Structures are given as structure tokens and as C-alpha cells.
Amino acid sequence: MSVKSTAAKPRTPRTGTRGGAKRREGEPELVQLLTPEGERVQHSEYSIDLSPEELRGLYRDMVLTRRFDAEATSLQRQGELGLWASLLGQEAAQIGSGRATRPDDYVFPTYREHGVAWCRGVDPVNLLGMFRGVNHGGWDPNENNFQLYTIVIGSQTLHATGYAMGISKDGADSAVIAYFGDGASSQGDVAEAFTFAAVYNAPVVFFCQNNQWAISEPTEKQSRVPIYQRAAGFGFPGVRVDGNDVLAVLAVTRAALEHARSGQGPMLVEAFTYRMGAHTTSDDPTRYRLDEEREQWEHKDPILRLRTYLEKDGIADEAFFAGVEAESETLGKRVREAVRAMPDPDPMSIFENIYADGHALVDEERAQFAEYQASFTDSTEGH
Amino acid sequence: MATMTIAKALNEALRKSLETDPKVVLMGEDIGKLGGVFRITDGLHKDFGEQRVIDTPLAESGIVGTAIGLALRGYRPVVEIQFDGFVFPAYDQIVTQLAKMHARALGKIKLPVVIRIPYGGGIGAVEHHSESPEAYFAHTAGLKVVSPSTPQDAYWMLQQAIDSDDPVIFLEPKRRYWDKGEVDTEGIPAPLHKARTALEGTDLTLAAYGPMVKVCLEAAAAAAEEGRSLEVVDLRSLSPLDFDAVQASVEKTRRLVVVHEAPVQLGMGAEIAARITERCFYHLEAPVLRVGGFHAPYPPARVEEEYLPGLDRVLDAVDRSLAF
């Protein structure tokens, strides 16, 4: 796959057509391979050739991810989760990029990468522990090369860069992908990650899901230039892709990862998408954005456009869509039951895993707390 | 046995660690060709190359953040923060990420990162070059905090910190870098998190660490001339802190003065006073006293000698304790 070699040069937004995709008035330049109407188009620099099975697989991934996400939102409403950060609307950005990774690549997510986790083979149930309040993550990052969710905005981009520096030292040919959002692009850590990655030519792809909103603040409050253009100032290529076009995201992320693996250093991908729901279940978007904006983005729905394409080109039939639908209901049910059965942690677990080699104060406080708990139980029994 | 400065002992310790473990990498500003502003990494870049001794961009959060990433990849990064006052840009990565990731992963990952910080005053420096930030780190679960006061401890404690699977904040008493002492590079080192009795005594315990151990030993020598026998405990490790050793000493002497450069307000001395009061209430003849910095920004160099606890301020506290 060809990789844009001149992208590191500062680029000014152009008008007119790029590749085969017609650019709409007032919309940014971006890589697109599937229009919102489900029309397959070509791009001069990025292309993709997928088998019918792979295309159906992407559809299935997105539907199951959306179903899981909806189930989690419901579970929050039912009081089973304390909070949920929905990815609604960002399925293509996550599935496209997640499916671009190889097993030996390493993923550093934010707290909203449920679709990427799905692609990496992380059981969706594992993602819910922290939102239920039974742990702070808890899965083994090395099992699927998928790091724990990071809540502090942008911190993980540095971890990803350091990990990628380690890959270089090892002489390995894998790559790292670091997820972050439009809000995180303002963080100093992200700028430092760009600097370190560029200076050490680290094999890391910075994948920004620009979903237009950082809680209540629009992207204009974060940047005066399109986010992908920031890469140029650090000396590596940046590209904006239609984040609701799973084919384009897959093609661009594959190219970016290959760019990193082949020793050409970091790359920034800005997936231009939209957060269809609230920031989290605690948020109320009606206070800061208009319904009309959301409605406009509904026409660009990532799942609908792929389905239109699959139907139109005879790549999938009704039986397939019904099968995915049934599978998604099974998944929802499994997740629901698993979350409801998730036990609260033992209070004594507060003292576990703080240190790898132990700590005298932790031991002392654990013993005191255990004694306190025991005394409470004893006095109850005494009555 | 070899005689060397604390700086040389640290340099030798880093060399030994680089030699014995290929996963050890050093990171920091100016640690390469320059050998660090205090020359602690002198010669290491030349002998181990830029893949092992990494000159970094001037960004402390970036240094610690990428060190975390390297640790996740299986490396054992040893980070140098150039001066105490410059650790704060990295404070977020240290406290929210480095300290907590092992717990976040329920123990499934380890973060063997050492953060070396030259700390403390007394070198006539400009602002931000003389601070004692140990309490910020000792307050944070998930971190270990140690500080050597002798070349012997500098040599061994740094190697032990690098061997540790936990993140260690390694505080180097910068004004003692050029103090010399004997180093036994062959023997078996003391455990990293145990205190050391620097001087035995019977009348009062002085507890200190890092740069203040020397001041306390000098105070004990002066007190001895007046017929008072002071015990000096070099704490060495601040998290965990060897309260058992302090307790044993206080049960013997019945009096305790804690000495550090850092402000006494919510400092290590406050914690020691609280815990020792709990543990030794019926042994104490006087309240635990603290000698340390004031609740003021570290002052300009021309008055730092007045600000820093010196021999006289320590002896003043000793007098007050004994007068109880």
C-alpha cells in the first residue's frame, strides 16, 4: 500500500475533488472510500481491496460493538453501571483502525475504545468492571496487546511512544497505535509524545478520533488548524480520514502502521467523526449543542452506509443481516447477565497489588483493617 | 574497599547496572555526552552508547511518560530529573500513571522505573534548584522513596532501586555529591528499606535522611562535648519508612527530634511524630520535635544558610527536648 510521502509538508486546505470523492461545501478535505450514500469511490493515495467475507466482517464488528455499547448505556440507566462512555457514532473509526492492527502491534486506548477492544479480542464484559466500580480496569494488557483504559486525557500517548521506542530497541517490526481525542490534542503530554516520537523515529501511529466535542467544547476551542496538520510541525505526516467510513479508516490506518513498521517513524491519523451521544451517561448535550447538528451526522452513519453498499453490490443477503442481528441480541444478553453477576470486590482487596515487592505500611494497615473488620463482626455476633 | 564520592558511587552503580542487565536504560536531559549537569552519568554514554544512555528532549512529563512505555515493553528505565524543582511537570505522570498502573492492572504489569532526583539546598543556586519534594511522593501509594546519605549507600541503594519491580523515587543529596567515604563493592548490602544506626547514643534520637544525616552527626559530636549522648538514625527509606527502627531507638532514648530540609508542615517529620507518638506514647519523655524548612518558598541563596537546619538549630531542638 502506498504511503503519502509528501504529507509531512504543511498543507493548506484545498477545494474541489480529491480522488473520486466529491468534497461537499464547507466540509474538510478527507480520505473517503465509501460515501455516506454507500457508494464505493477511489482515492488517489489510499486504496483497499477486501474480500466479501472481510467486508461482512467489518459490518458485523460495527453492529456488535454498537449493540454492546447500547447495552452498557441501558445497564447504566438500570443502575448496574455507575457510568458509561458511549462510542455511538464512532464505530467505523474504531473498527477500521482496530482491524488494521496486527496481533503483535500494541494498542494504547483512552476510555472509549470499546470497538478497538473488540477487534483485539478483549471480552466486552471486561471493559465494564471499571464502569461498574469493581476495579479500575483489571484485564491483562499483554494478553491482547491492549493496554488498560486511560482516563487522564492524553497520558497514554507518551506510554505508547515509549513502548514504540522499546520496539525499535528490540529491532522488532511491530508498531503501536495511540488513541486520543480532539480535546486531548490540547494536552501537553500529546505534544511531548509527538516530539519524542519524531525525535526517536518511533513506530507509533497517533490516532485521533475527532468527534467534534470534548464534553461541551467544540473543536474550535482546541485548535485553530485541522488537527491532522499539527503533525507537520513535528516533522511527520498527518492525514484526515472520514471517520465514519470504515473502509477508508482501515486503508489509512493500515498504511500508517506500515509506515511506522517500515522504519519511517510516526504518523498522525485524524478520523473525522461525531460523538452521537453524550460524553458519558452523566452528560447532557442539550445544554451545548443543537439537534440539527446531530441530525446531519445521522446521514453519515457508519453502519448504514456499509449496509447500503453490501446490499447494493450483493455482498450480503438478508440471512446475513438477520444472523448478525440475532448474534447481537445474544451478545447483549450475555453482557447483561455477566454484569449483573459481577460481584463486588472483597474490601481487603483494597490492599492488594499496590506494590509488586510489598510495602511495610500497606502490610500494617491491612492487618489493622482486618482486625477492625473482625471486631465488627464479632460484636454483631455477640448480640 | 574503595574511597569515592557519592557522585562516583552513583556513577559506578549505574555502570554496574548497565553491565549486568541489558534491559537497563538511562534517560534524561544532558546525561549523554555531558554526563549530566552533576556528571553522575559521566562516561556512560561513551561506553554504553546512545541506545542505553539516552539524551532526551527537554520535557519531564515526556521523559517519565516514555519511561513508563519502555517499562511496559520490558525495559528498566532509570530517569534523571535534572533538579528537584523540575520534577513537577512530570508529577502527573508519576502520580496518576506510574504509581497506579500496577494496581490498575490488578498486578498483571510491573513498572520498574527509577526516577533519580538531585534534591535539597545548600549549593547557592537560583530558584527551583534547592527543593525537597519527598513528601509529595511518600504521600502517594504505589511509589517507593529512598535517599542515601553515604557513598556506600549511594552505591548499593541505587542498584537495589533499579532491581526493584516497583517505581522508586531516588533522592540524591546534591550538596553531598562530593563528600567522600568508603565503599565496599563486594559485600552484601543492607536491605533497601531498612534504617541504619549512624551513631549509637542513649539520651535522645535524631532521625534524618539524605543531606541532614551529616548535620545530625556533627550535632551529636558537639553534644558529646557537653556530655550528651545522641543517637543518629539514618532513615534511608522514606516509603516504606522503617518505623520499627525509629521505635526501637526511641524506646531506648525516650526522646526524638526529626530533621529534614523540607518544610515541617505536613512533611516526613509530621508523619514520624504521629506514628512514633502512637507507638511509643508511654516511653516518650518529651513531644517529638521537628527541625526543618519553614512554610515559605525556598529562599534566595544569600539567606539559605539561615533557612536550612544547621548544627545550631538541631542543638536548639535537642535542648528543648531534653529540658522537658
TrEMBL record, chain A:
Keywords: Oxidoreductase, Pyruvate, Thiamine pyrophosphate. Residues 1-29 are annotated as: Disordered. It comes from the Bacteria. This is Pyruvate dehydrogenase E1 component alpha subunit. The keyword Oxidoreductase applies. Residues 60-341 form the Dehydrogenase E1 component domain. The keyword Oxidoreductase applies. GO terms for biological process: branched-chain amino acid catabolic process. It comes from Actinacidiphila glaucinigra. One of its GO terms (molecular function) is oxidoreductase activity, acting on the aldehyde or oxo group of donors, disulfide as acceptor. Its cofactor is thiamine diphosphate.
UniProtKB/TrEMBL annotation, chain B:
SUPFAM superfamilies: Thiamin diphosphate-binding fold (THDP-binding), TK C-terminal domain-like. Coiled coil: none annotated. CDD domains: TPP_PYR_E1-PDHc-beta_like. It holds the Pfam family Transketolase_C. The keyword Ligase does not apply. Gene3D superfamilies: 3.40.50.920, 3.40.50.970. GO terms for molecular function: magnesium ion binding; oxidoreductase activity. Keywords: Oxidoreductase, Pyruvate, Thiamine pyrophosphate. InterPro entries: THDP-binding, Transketo_C/PFOR_II, Transketolase-like_Pyr-bd, Transketolase_C. Residues 4-179 form the Transketolase-like pyrimidine-binding domain. Its cofactor is thiamine diphosphate. PANTHER family: PYRUVATE DEHYDROGENASE E1 COMPONENT BETA SUBUNIT (PTHR43257), PYRUVATE DEHYDROGENASE E1 COMPONENT SUBUNIT BETA (PTHR43257:SF2). This is Pyruvate dehydrogenase E1 component beta subunit.
